[in-house]
């Protein structure tokens, strides 16, 4: 070890309008981990991501980014270290793919600095990485949902973050793109925290799973440790079965009621 | 057909073409009028008589400069407000600026006739009053949504218009007429003082817009996404709103109501020059100037020995443009 953790939560609580959203969170995320945030609606997944973007301030406790309190980061300092890919509603005015990806330079450029040859090379590289090579001049609004999500991923790559936050990145995507987006994120080889609804996607792609329920961290570990029948049935309130995913050595979760039993 | 032609031209060439057109229209504007000034005279190849030289330098030249500035300023504000609010219908006039200016002008003309020479000043403060009221309400709602501000603008507009209308109703018809004419918009009072008042505001707004080009692009997606890139969303919006308010208040105070330029030109620019902030802002400045100089020249020459109020012409063109846009969207 010896490395500074990317993220440290110590005794973090979040209250909004007298309502307890998150309670006593303690965990440490090491560089390079691909972490899934799991839990039912209202468990606090999105609130946790908002804490990391400083959209919310913890009511108690402290969050550290690379050993430094998050509260000491200015908004642009934070943007140079943490990138976010969230869901989009279609933009009103149509930008090109290049316009959107180049926004990733905002935290790294002074107002008067223009784009260099190197930036444009990086733009090409980022788009190749997400499988959208040579689409620079295409219109962003006319892309499919999956392609838009990948353009935003390319923008995040351009931002050169230390930590990538994915807020339900696979929502509204078909099966192919659900896997595609997570494969690309994993291939980036940086620290990723993704809130995901699909437990099997988390099991397949994430090194570590954090399971939240009613604002509390109820399990933290590998897929084998977290995805257990008793825990999931309790948290999601639906009977479930765990077996082995035939495509790889990770657990597979099946939910359902057996009516004809 | 025209779309194919435009698409075939690279963007810098489109700007060059627009510049050439702008120069041509400026020449026409200086040449046209009850006293004709030959093109050879404009370029200094032929001597102008005293009458021509007075008309050129005292009347047409300041008027041309004012048209250039007012057109580009209004279009620039429209483009900035539309992008910052993600609302394609945003326009400097939505914030009650014109109604405020109208109230100011009405007070100067009717209530305090001895202050009549200061009508533009009263109009300017009237416009600022309207923006101040809108911002006051916006601050109470903690800048949650820009839509709230736009709706406040509409409400403030109606409120101030009601006061203006009451004052006009109670006043003598002659004074009311003067206010009505002022509201229709005209560049006929143009002077270099006006130009000196408006030009720094327009230049500062353009410069800041260009410096913050990336941040403005980022605002077009969602607020959350812009913040995650380190953009200070609310302060940026407030600065844009204040600058646009100052620019449009100054323009309305000098020229009266010139509607639709701020709404229409940015839409044209998006289809002709592109959507990223640099193309949008520069394109709006170019096309706004071109449009207003052309319309002003037209409004001076349509009727013999008489001027049409420029606001009437822009409104007529603007409403047709609006309808055509509506049909275009419906066809998809």
TrEMBL record, chain B:
Chief location of this protein within or outside the cell: membrane
Task: Return the InterPro entries for the record.
Answer: ABC_BtuC-like, ABC_transptr_permease_BtuC
| GO biological processes | siderophore-iron import into cell
CDD domains given in the database record: TM_ABC_iron-siderophores_like
GO annotation, cellular component aspect: plasma membrane
Q: Which domain of life is it from?
A: Bacteria
What name has this protein been given in UniProt? Iron ABC transporter permease
Q: Which organism is it from?
A: Rheinheimera tangshanensis
> Taxonomic lineage per UniProt?
Bacteria, Pseudomonadati, Pseudomonadota, Gammaproteobacteria, Chromatiales
